[in-house]
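Q: How would the structure tokens look for this protein?
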Amino acid sequence: MKSTTLPHAYREIERLKQRPVHQLNTLPTVPPGTADERGPDLQLGGGRSKKFWEGIYISTARSPQKTWYGSSSIFYFIGRINTFLTLALQETHSALRMLPNSASFLLDAPTTVSDGDHSQGGRLVAAPTDDAVNAGDYLTPTQEEYFLDLFWQSYYTSFPILDELEFKEHYQSLWATSDKERKPSALVDIVIAVCMQYGMARLRGVGRGLSAASRTSVNDNDATIAGRWHYRRCQTLLSCQLESPSISTLQCHILCSIYLCCGSFQNMADNACSLAVRTAYMLGLHLEPPQTMPRREKEMRKRLWWTLYVLETKMSMKLGRPFLLHDSSTTCSLPADDRDIAMLSGSSFAPLGENVTWLTWNLHNTKLMLAARTAYTAFYNNVPNTSNVCNPQFIAERLEGWLKGVPEALKTKRQNNGAPFSTDISALEIEQFAPLWLQRQRLLLELMYHNLCTNLYRPSISFALARAPHPLTDRTAMKCAAHAMALTHMMHQVLLSTSILAGWHEAFQWQWNAAMTLVGFVLAYPQGASTQAARSAIDLSVAVFENFGNSFAVAASAASIMSDLSAKVDLFIQSQGMQGVAMQLATNCAESGDESLINGNSIAAQAVDGLLSFDDENAAEITGVLAQSIDIFAAETYNDFDWSAININFSDQWAFTQQ
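A: Here is the predicted structure in token form.
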């Protein structure tokens, strides 16, 4: 150990005091070499420059091009964590280039193609002779029937964009001329694809799970890309409908976006969603349906529009990208959920009492997204400063207002008088004899609520190295952690004791988002009142990932990475605690002039000597694991992620750029 003296410690204190502390209303300086990535200045009227929130550029798999994710995304938050560690450790670390498992099999070609959809009287034609896939990659009629049946108990109750009776009649018509090969249908293909993706994951989740060799390797048998041939055939069929879209075309685009999102193909899902948006506008779904239209058709159009609105809003906020749908261009009213329309929808679900039907969840899920979007827009549409920081009261008012309207039938009860939709982390009391679709609806609504709250409060997590306490910001950061912990505890109980969410891909993504948020919170507040509880919740998330790992390999990789990251974070927190002791001790020495406080005290000397000297190997490992964490959220589709190529303009908790 190198020698430590009082002057040395005092100089360290003075150097820290002189380092700039980014203030809330201070614009960051653009680092050298980044101007070419930020584009030209954007001038508003009167010569004023527009200020906007920052994002992060990262390279995706199979492409050297960078794609942009905004400041509300988990990608950007992980970038903030990395920048904080770089500043804290006073070194720039370049992680090893990652070679994660790839799910790029989705991009391969299908066995057969078609010259049109069922609505155009299309027919199947032979595939190219060099196609590597044989006919066995498609399903038999019996297998199709199995996966289609899954749809009505799973996605259908969360995305009520089909008429069950009409779809089943259409499906039967495809077999009118043959009992061995049905006529082509883009809609049937994509419904089968999403159900294969979910069904294969669910079977493994409640069964024996993946083999040891497959748990960390995304191969052509992984559930995230199950149904890929049906997805690709759907895309081929849809290409014939671009100039003359129908309601069926829109339904296909929405389901394609869901399929890609659940497979964690974030950019492809975003693109599919944008196609759905333009198609909806072409069909006039943003307008109130004509009074002369039958009520059954009117309500279907409303459900389609608002389901798309929820999907697009959720995706834009998750990725931090501008919204595609805007309220100012919409006159379509919210869909109905009464018993009459529930019966007209073509489904036979029994009513739930309290004027609640199977469609009620969709209505309240839409209202939740509207409330969250209002809070999100109010925050991100303004440049942050000391007078308009993240206002937890505004967020709480919007979401609590929504919560008051949620019927009891859509809430999961708690043991020991715990409250649903709270952060008291009370154990769930899952109704044993409720239908599976209803149990899932209840859980998904509450999990989405906690996920949205986590994201809305997350900008308040401050990574400043030296800062005075900020009560409002600190309380808001604790709210963020509380919702992330609530989500994690719910997921842990549900996954380890029931099969309700087995194989549900989006729930895995919510858990990853919550776990990374908790990692950031623990790093930012190593001595906070909620830190120990947050750290314990990270361990629970590992168990959740391990359970999901039975269904798809990306979750098993998430468990390994989060376990590794949490161990490294513990080392970092321990070093920060030593630094705090050293700083206080050195300050006392300097003020009193009594070096005996250090001399002869080996523990104190080690603490002072360890000031900002966290082990380089551990520091590099933390940064390397962070690089892997980006890969997990992005579908294991990143194969070339290099932190040294990223320039994040870091500014305490509020990072924005003046152009």
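The radius of gyration is 27 Å.

Residues 526 and 577 are 8 Å apart (CA to CA).

Upvote if useful.
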